[in-house]
Amino acid sequence: MKKYPFCLFGILFALPLLVMGQARIQLDNPAVMARTEEVVSVPWKTILSVYPDIDSGYFAVIDPVTKKQVPYQLEYKGHPVVQNLLVQVSMPAKSKLLLAIKKMKPEVFPAKTYCRYVPERKDDFAWENDRIAFRAYGKALENTVEDAYGLDVWVKRTSELVLNKRYKLGDYHNDHGDGMDYYHVGFSLGAGNVAPYVNDSIWYSHNYRNWKILDNGPLRTSFELEFDTWTVGDKKIKAIKSFSIDAGAQMHKVAVTYFFDGSEALPVVVGIIKRDQPGESWLSEQEGMMGYWEPKDGSNGTTGVGCVFSAPVQAMMIRNGQFLSLQQARSGEPLVYYRGAAWDKAGRITSASEWFKHIRQYQQQLNSPIRVTVQR
């Protein structure tokens, strides 16, 4: 009889561990900086290895300390089956965070990323998160007075998704309280586009021809834009550009894959248009970072644009009114870099020094990713 209290105590002691869930995810931030609203990728195969009978439509991710559900997304990357579980977390420097996967009805969290093809606006393709928005120009814009080559920025000062609202209103060049489009692209690379660079010249393609959405929120949106073959020097070039934007980030990932004959590398440049009025620029060739804080545009405020590079940078220069970063691309191999923008009137980043610091911190974040462990 004396054994029963001990057994009961053991059951009660173990109960909280059982309630925690069917699997646990440990996140480890190795960096000496805090992570704020960062989207972390957990391989789905790893989750299945410890929780094989998980119902992908009926589970929640729980923070055992706060007892609250954590926003998540199942990422497919264009495949028919799940590739990753994405979770959005904030972590102090040099810290660990334990999350639990529980079999229960998940909360519905608001979408923080989005993209779509916009046929009603001359084949635009637009994307956004809760910080900033962008667009690429399509075929229907070619040979019009609005034609442009580069990537556009739509500044925001709201965490809400605004693309559909702005296109429906049809007046996105004026600020109606949530931001606007005042960024000028023209015949340039705009805000961080990429193009071949041969014989000291940028060889622009036509605007994109085909698009494919891989994932569309709520935490990560990714898609591909395909470009028709064009002539670069004595080569025929074809390109696919992949974009992936996360919630809570000013910067996002670009992977461009060129296809051409031969094994020789293709010189390419990533560029940012330079304004005529004085602004503040920061070109760090050795570190692989490029930033520009534009001159103030009257009552519209100031936009910052920046890039971070994964591959070695051969040179950075100012040519034909653009800041250019020269790299090498090989046929069939993705060239990855990161681009983004910020607007001072959004209130988060309000000066050149803050913007350049943010770009550096983003690079540090990429170089010290959150480590993931999944266990039963």
Supply the key terms.
4 helices, disordered N terminus, Immunoglobulin-like, 376 residues, Beta-galactosidase, Chain A, domain 5, 2 domains, mainly beta, five-stranded antiparallel β-sheet, 44% strand, eight-stranded antiparallel β-sheet
In the CATH hierarchy, what is the class of the largest domain?
Answer: Mainly Beta
- Reading the helices and strands in chain order gives HEEHEEEEEEEEEHEEEEEEEEEEEEEEHE
Strand pairing plus helix content: what structural class?
Answer: mainly beta
Average the pLDDT over all residues and give the rounded result.
94
Helix content: 10-25%
How many strand segments? Answer: 26
Largest sheet: 8 strands, antiparallel
Tell me the overall shape.
globular
Strand content: 35-45%
Unreliable stretches (pLDDT < 50, length at least 5) are 1-19
How widely separated are the two ends? 33 Å
CATH third-tier fold name of the largest domain: Beta-galactosidase, Chain A, domain 5
Task: Name the CATH architecture of the largest domain.
Answer: Distorted Sandwich
